Amino acid sequence: MAKIELQDVSVTFNAHQQKRVSFKEYLVSGLFLRSMNPPLRVHALKGINLSARDGDRIGIIGHNGAGKSTLLKTLAGIYPPTNGTREVEGKICSLFDITLGFEFEATGWDNIMYRAYLQGETPSSIRGKLDAIAEFSELGDFLNIAVRNYSAGMQMRLAFSIATAIDPEVLLIDEVLAVGDLAFQNKAKARMKELMKTSRLMVIVAHDLNAILDMCTHVIWMEHGCVRAEGAPGIVVEQYIAAAAAASGQLPEALKAA
Ligand SMILES: Nc1ncnc2c1ncn2[C@@H]1O[C@H](COP(=O)(O)OP(=O)(O)OP(=O)(O)O)[C@@H](O)[C@H]1O
Predict the structure, then answer these.
(1) What InterPro entries does this protein map onto (predicted)?
(2) Considering the entire predicted model, what is its pTM?
């Protein structure tokens, strides 16, 4: 069974400020032993509660900087909650930032082994998938050389081929993932669709509201690190569009017609 349970989760970052300071300000701050660039605390997530089970397809929408990617990364276990608790059960496949964590001095083949192992495969289950991963990546002999010699697109191909080789129970996707050239993108999209169908639980961050309406059973609208609204996709997306239109001083199409 796949399961996600976030209780009162907050994530805070300490960002280093790089304000320009005049020489005078610099001297005065030194005199009082004050830093001119104290860390800026960014409250990316504030008190998020989320509960999802087998069969749920959750869409996350919201403005730039609302906290969508941070939420996805917290679910993936990349960011530990600053407060609150995170519980995720099931094999996770994260389709975002997929090229992070390559061993650049190692060959493509070795990276397949390392990564698949980190994704929870055993040495024997990896061996059964090696050829399929290599074939999907279409990297051929390049798999014999160090990954540092790959182009950005080739790294993407390899990372995507490995990440999607497992049968995920929990699928975490950022819509902006664009993999490789046009031919590979079509292949990648088809594989993503397949994974969306077969995974038990999916959470997707997207700005494409039609995709959200098509795919999701539940939508969470994030605003400044909080959940502004959540519920049935049709209702939440409509509220989101109306709020965006009001903010930009335009009437939503539906209201214009009324
Ligand atoms: N590693 C980090 N260090 C410091 N601040 C961060 C970090 N990651 C995100 N933030 C901040 O957290 C807030 C939420 O960012 P996040 O990337 O989650 O937003 P988002 O909703 O995914 O935005 P977008 O739609 O633009 O991708 C922003 O204010 C961002 O500056």
Answers:
(1) AAA+_ATPase, ABC_transporter-like_ATP-bd, ABC_transporter-like_CS, ABC_transpr_TagH-like, Bact_Polysacc_Export_ATP-bd, P-loop_NTPase
(2) 0.83
